[in-house]
Design goal:
Two copies of one chain form a homodimer. The first copy, chain A, is an alpha+beta fold. Chain A is built from ten helices and ten strands. Chain A has helices at about 10-25, 65-85, 105-120, 170-180, 190-200, 210-215, 235-245, 260-265, 270-275, 290-300; strands at about 35-40, 45-55, 85-95, 125-130, 135-145, 160-165, 225-230, 245-250, 285, 305-310. In chain A, strand 3 (about 85-95), helix 3 (about 105-120) and strand 4 (about 125-130) form a beta-alpha-beta unit. In chain A, helix 1 (about 10-25) runs parallel beside helix 3 and helix 4 (about 170-180) packs across helix 5. The radius of gyration of chain A is 21 Å and the shape is globular. The relative contact order of chain A is 0.15.
Chain lengths: ~350, ~350
């Protein structure tokens, strides 16, 4: 490869140079019009998801290195597959770049993306690279799940336990430590605590391990599990699961697991960040109580935070019609408002 | 649905309003973390492709209505599936929008996208919508092809006929008529001729019909067919097919089918636009001569334009190493230079 100065840009690399760089990270070298993936076993279904990430909306040089932009983009999409109970099959990246993007940014972004995929046993299989005034990533992830065994959002039932698979609020804490170091933390942190928050923000871990653990616990039988990830915040996930399943939930507010490090960073805002911080990429699951107990025993960071306590009458049209936005959120989860939540588009 | 003023923007619509609008065009209404697609027959493989389109790079309000932005985005991705010999299975759109985007733009874009999918018997199954300073679309299309029957770029052999499936240069002609009406056409056009050019540019037709026709002509046997689409220009397609297959081609330059309307619009530039115009979304195919003859008989707009005349010695490392960019293109196709070609990234 021709060598470039440390600050060389993708414009100097040119189209074919960009392609050669990307090919180092891509398992599909043939360069056809589309990636050929092979077939699926007869008992499998496909799930597929896409996410767009925009510079200065979803990431910025101030808080996110190129490596972490790649890692987070991969992790967010793998988390969507985990939320469906699926196993990853492959990913694509469509990339928009300004001419003045450093080659090193492009390379490090693919490095982070690739490391995340490798960690979770999957591959980049294709993509597209175009010129754009701002850095833009659109990642597509697709995976497989056994016929009838996909987890959805609309299957929760009265009596189900509500389980979260790990800490919430730490991604927000990491972001705020980076953005406003003169304001946060409220109480001094150890290096390890600070690193914990940074990592939660910069290297989120999609919970594909939970998919595997639950499959093993249930002996690969199709147990009814209702799931989504908490990328838009824990509160949003709880409300969505209730809305889609037409059920009410009760959270054990006196006993929710607010991480101690979160209290040190956020002070009185700790509970708020825990609920609304977003981007923790844990799973929020509704399942039979005994399975929930087994899961919490096997995976210590899992915790039951409440249960499904009632159903929304089928003759209530408030869910269907245009009043949806006016429905008070505690119609679903007592004491919870979505208004403060993280909103993708506003 | 709440009614909005004609010039209302997506900011007024809000996140949930945007989602409701999109749901009207999307077959997957459940709103899970990923779309659940079902399984594939045991004898099928999957192909998957993604494309990013940026405002003022790939489209602009000056030449492309919202409806046509949607149509073209769908068509370009379906054309990639056709180039693989595949049948569409579904598509996703990730969309970045400025707050001030008119609701009508969003709606018309989805309308155009949806009409194209409907025309070709497939569906929108999911997506993502985020805030962005510029309008950005990332479309992912996936399809199915029988095991071992995918068309690729690297299988052309000595003696193959080279077939194009339709007119080239007309998309460029349509674009130039829109952009520089005081310069083009060189010779007055009838309304029908003008419309032909506009439509070539604004409503390209992915050649999924050719996939079907060839499958029928070959009785669904796996015949070796080498293919790509001409989205980046006919010259680029010819060179890529030769590079990837390590063969040389000869084009019957004295007998190439330059459309008469192209000569009226472009004058002495007609042949140049035919070769380098791009975005015609036809297929360029290499196949045994007798199959080529059958295809041209059944589909009159298909034409043999040349043949594969030789191979590149396997000990030539010029294809592999960093001299690639310096290789004179007539190393592959006599008299053809890629230098003037359409380049995605420069």
């Amino acid at each position: 490869m021709t060598s470039f100065a440390a600050d060389a840009t993708v414009a100097e690399l040119g189209e074919s140079g960009i392609l050669r760089l990307i090919e180092r990270f891509c398992s599909n070298q043939v360069g056809d019009d589309a990636a050929l993936m092979g077939g699926m076993a007869a008992d499998q279904e496909m799930v597929i998801t896409t996410d767009m990430l925009i510079e200065n909306v979803h990431f910025s040089d101030a808080t996110t290195s190129a490596y972490d932009v790649g890692w987070r983009a991969a992790a967010a999409n793998l988390s969507d597959l985990a939320a469906m109970g699926a196993v990853p099959w492959g990913l694509l990246i469509a990339l928009g770049l300004p001419k003045e993007t450093p080659i090193s940014w492009l390379e490090n972004m693919y490095q982070g993306f690739g490391e995340c995929l490798k960690t979770y046993g999957t591959e980049l299989v294709g993509g597209d690279t175009v010129r754009s005034p701002i850095r833009t990533l659109a990642v597509t992830a697709f995976g497989q799940v056994r016929q009838g065994a996909a987890w959805q959002r609309n299957t929760a039932q009265m009596g189900d336990a509500i389980v979260i698979t790990g800490a919430h609020g730490l991604s927000k804490a990491g972001l705020m430590l980076l953005l406003e170091p003169e304001v946060y933390p409220m109480v001094p942190l150890s290096d390890a605590e600070r690193e914990l928050c940074y990592r939660a923000h910069q290297r989120p871990q999609p919970r594909l391990d939970i998919v595997q653990t639950i499959r093993e616990l249930t002996d690969h039988q199709s147990i009814r599990i209702t799931a989504m990830d908490s990328s838009d915040g824990l509160a949003d996930a709880l409300i969505q699961l209730c809305q889609k399943s037409r059920v009410k939930a009760s959270i054990d507010w006196n006993n929710v697991p607010i991480p101690s490090v979160l209290e040190k960073v956020a002070g009185i805002k700790a509970r708020h960040w825990w609920l609304y911080g977003g981007e923790d990429f844990e799973l929020v699951l509704c399942m039979p109580v005994d399975l929930a107990d087994q899961l919490c025993q096997v995976v210590p960071e899992c915790q039951v935070i409440g249960s499904i306590t009632g159903t929304i009458p089928p003759d209530s049209d408030r869910l269907q019609d245009d009043l949806l936005d006016d429905v008070r959120d505690d119609f679903y989860v007592s004491g919870l408002s979505r208004r403060d939540g993280f909103q993708h588009f506003s």
